[in-house]
Amino acid sequence: xxxxxxxxxxxxxxxxxxxxxxxxxxxxxxxxxxxxxxxxxxxxxxxxxxxxxxxxxxxxxxxxxxxxxxxxxxxxxxxxxxxxxxxxxxxxxxxxxxxxxxxxxxxxxxxxxxxxxxxxxxxxxxxxxxxxxxxxxxxxxxxxxxxxxxxxxxxxxxxxxxxxxxxxxxxxxxxxxxxxxxxxxxxxxxxxxxxxxxxxxxxxxxxxxxxxxxxxxxxxxxxxxxxxxxxxxxxxxxxxxxxxxxxxxxxxxxxxxxxxxxxxxxxxxxxxxxxxxxxxxxxxxxxxxxxxxxxxxxxxxxxxxxxxxxxx
Length: 312
Description:
The protein is of the alpha/beta class. It has helices at 61-67, 97-110, 125-134, 153-165, 169-181, 187-200, 209-220, 223-228, 268-277, 293-296, 298-310, and strands at residues 8-15, 24-31, 43-46, 71-75, 118-123, 141-147, 255-261, 281-286. The protein has eleven helices and eight strands. An eight-stranded mixed sheet has the order 1-2-4-3-5-6-7-8, sandwiched between helices.
């Protein structure tokens, strides 16, 4: 029996992954009840990383508590409780945007949401995935929320350089020197990188436990993150390095809400291309947040998202 203060269920969905060399599955968790008829459209939440897992998105459970919105969380293939593929580390031809869009399609169809309809919320990499998926005009998509989602990875790299310049001089110097020699494992690098994370990823002290678990999930299996992002949050050298999702965003027909934080590593100019390209769009920057606004300014975040999804 669940000890959580809301009805939950979980399961696994078979996912046929070409080239995986073994059967794969996607683990999911539902907060609320999809089995009973309701006028409230379910929300599917796409986690960041890549490879960060669903844990930190449990903050969105407040949407169910306040608005009755059924919430679907899942671990994307390669992390968490879904199938791991460590043997595919470094294989950029395998870890693609298309792979994760196919997984999302598979999840939607398996849960019977295509005809019923669904909302999407993607945070960080999850927002990049959600934005690109919405650009394909998938059947059933009602509304879209992109949270701290880079519209362009070249712009994101520029933002990271700007944020690095805001760090104390000694911290910036350490990160620069470590970067030159490819040092991403020393205590000096980790201490300096932690300063960046505390300023531009999550400013809460102590960190919420679900976010601690998320960072642990990435550390336990770096296959997806290392291949698609790279060795650090602020230097994208993986397969996402040339992502320009905004170029297809004019095809998005779903009404869209853009959110980022005042202190976000995804600065305003990295969000702006979404805003210019999407037809029906609203953009709010949360003054008391960085990259994890669902925790840092939860009251305002849940209010904005809840109101946006409730106007059906």
